[in-house]
């Protein structure tokens, strides 16, 4: 599992570690790891010896890391030049090391000709707001060519704690971060600026608290969560999920939600709604009921909302499902129709799965505010509705009311931006709830499998939601093998 910590926590850990080490040891560790990563990038298109490296150097320790790494590259035969954004505040030890190794300090990158690597060491993890005008011009001038850009700890101009990008920022091909991940490296929009992220171990682990601010599950974590039937299993022990979805106008939403549930391992699916004929035509194993959801039979979890529309029958279905004493997942139209006080008063778990627009409506803010501050939005929604919230998007976030770390899903892909994809995710996550997974785990595993399935189904080509549903078993197999 990948863990990410706030700037305040990282700085406290660094101070504690620095107090136990010889002076300058922590910076030398970081610089050594940065130099190795720079060398790896250079070797992909050539070699370190004879390469041309441009350092963009700010003040403070981030600039010091960059200068010491530049010195290491210069000792290996690279031609290293540095542009200082604040010459009077440059790290003195790093600057001396660079010059002693044969590196040069220049006023501007414009006259240097082609370079093989640009290293962004302008601002560190404490930066707020976008790049200042002078730094923006420097970055623009330095990155006009085709040289890859490597960011030091975090791309300059993005915010480490929130993932927000409030102005111009460096777009890196790769980022080398030290000690632990920072939330902004895992959350869009900032994550889009980071490129491939490489973590350098500088010995910070023992100084960090056990509870991170953010975590991202990996294959082994998800495999440990997924329910596997035993010899004693029957359809009820595997979990029966109820689906209240679809309408005469949107029968496909019912089909896709049921598809996600069936492919997600449910022992059985009970469907309640006007899309019964379409569901049975596609999935004859579904148990359909024409009446109210509460009359459909025993279930271990409900999914309500996809394609319901906004008529009186839709309102009645949402109200009926929220009255059930089992876990309930609310999606799409259900999010508009649910009563907030009813959700907060529920004693059984509730999972809400909005996209940015739906989240904005629930919070009473502009969609742009949610998209710019996804971490704050998902936390606020979880607290406001006393629920587990899965905020869909380019990086899907899962938060639970309380002090548990927010989870970020690492398998998302832009191919999921297609009609009906969310319906499939709802059914899949509902099946995991019915199997007995704790809501945060069900949402996390569901999002992970959903992303893997989309990658498998698309293989770099356009994909439809029905294809994503069909690829879920293969994604499940990928995780568990």
Residue stretches low in confidence (pLDDT < 50, at least 5 long) are none
Please compute the radius of gyration using only Cα atoms.
Answer: 26 Å
Number of helices in the DSSP assignment: 19
- Cα separation of the termini: 18 Å
User: Helix share of residues?
Assistant: 40-55%
Count the E strands. 18
Q: What can be said about the biggest beta sheet? A: 11 strands, mixed
- Spatial ordering of strands, largest sheet: 1-9-18-17-16-15-14-13-10-11-12
Shape type = elongated
Strand fraction equals 15-25%
On the 0-100 scale, what is the average pLDDT? 93
User: Which structural category fits the helices and strands?
Assistant: alpha/beta
Cofactor: Mg(2+); K(+)
Pfam families: Carb_kinase (PF01256), YjeF_N (PF03853)
EC number: 4.2.1.136, 5.1.99.6
Keywords: ATP-binding, Isomerase, Lyase, Metal-binding, Multifunctional enzyme, NAD, NADP, Nucleotide-binding, Potassium
Write up this protein.
With 481 residues, this protein is α/β, with parallel strands linked by helices. It contains 19 helices and 18 strands. The protein has an eleven-stranded mixed sheet, sandwiched between helices. It has a seven-stranded parallel sheet with strand order 4-3-2-5-6-7-8, sandwiched between helices. Strand 16 (388-391) and strand 17 (397-400) form a beta hairpin. The chain is elongated. The model has no long low-confidence stretch (mean pLDDT 93). It catalyses: (6S)-NADHX + ADP = AMP + phosphate + NADH + H(+); (6S)-NADPHX + ADP = AMP + phosphate + NADPH + H(+); (6R)-NADHX = (6S)-NADHX; (6R)-NADPHX = (6S)-NADPHX. Its cofactor is Mg(2+); K(+).
